[in-house]
Amino acid sequence: MYSTTTGLRNLTNEFGISQPLFDDYKAIKFVPSPGCSNDTSFVMRMDWAALKAVPQVLPLGMPGSILLTKDGWAIDEAEVPNIEWKRYQQRLAASGTDIDNTQPTGAALPVSDYFTNPFYDYYPVVGVSYEQVLAFCKWRSRVISKMINRGKPGAPDSLATEHIVVESRLPTEAEWEQAALVKRGLPYGSKCTELPVVIDPKAAAYLKQRSGSTVVVSQIFADIKAYNQGRPVRSTINYDQSEPYFLRLATPAYVYGGATNDYHLYNLLGNVAEMIQERGIAKGGSYRDPITACTVTSRSQYTGPAPTVGFRCIIRATQPNRK
């Protein structure tokens, strides 16, 4: 119904027709373990209404973001997915803007239809450049600012006391590491990096497409049931790990999949390495990397669009005219 990066209503009724998709979060379920889900983060103890110096922009805070600091900085709970990049393109096209320079680089996609196939809509957008991402962040700032100032006293006067300015940008390395709980001094921000897992046999067809397997669905169904009987334990980080064939990845995975860290952030480590403000540096490692490249402090480098590099944004709302 609404965009998770802007809060704007969809321009098209994307979910009006039935699509043969399977919800990833139902396919792979991590089993909570004692001591692994304790919330020690600031974010869950302080709600937006309590921040007197920061305007409460939307009922639940900024679109798609989780509060990170006392001065109102928030960070996207998940990597920006393909569907949100498509909605970005739709908005630009509706305003008469040429979207040719917003297209992901085809040669930098993990599979040829990764951006166009609805199957991957909620998988992280990759194959985009640093410059394209900066343009997205600036656009996001503008459209949210315009939306939330509508109807306020003095609108659309940017000098009005009630005027809100929204800033969306890539995080700095220090901000990204803060979100990854670097201060704990643990390589992965948490002691709980592995949990028992249960795979839904009904997801056999979904996992066949997700993995690119040539095995027939009925056999995958049987193999999943056998796998579950062994009470498997799996890493909560999506890295290049030893997997049964039906869990192997031809692409990055669902952005809201797996366990979150204590800030309730998805896939901060693994899945795709994430761009930061420091150009050419990505954080967190990817689905093609070893676990040692997916630590809180590890870095990787990129020189252009890549199938393993995506991003999430930092976002904040302020009222600069209020004394």
UniProtKB/TrEMBL annotation:
<dbReference type="InterPro" id="IPR016187">
    <property type="entry name" value="CTDL_fold"/>
</dbReference>
<dbReference type="InterPro" id="IPR051043">
    <property type="entry name" value="Sulfatase_Mod_Factor_Kinase"/>
</dbReference>
<protein>
    <submittedName>
        <fullName>SUMF1/EgtB/PvdO family nonheme iron enzyme</fullName>
    </submittedName>
</protein>
<dbReference type="Pfam" id="PF03781">
    <property type="entry name" value="FGE-sulfatase"/>
</dbReference>
<feature type="domain" description="Sulfatase-modifying factor enzyme-like">
    <location>
        <begin position="71"/>
        <end position="314"/>
    </location>
</feature>
<dbReference type="InterPro" id="IPR005532">
    <property type="entry name" value="SUMF_dom"/>
</dbReference>
<dbReference type="InterPro" id="IPR042095">
    <property type="entry name" value="SUMF_sf"/>
</dbReference>
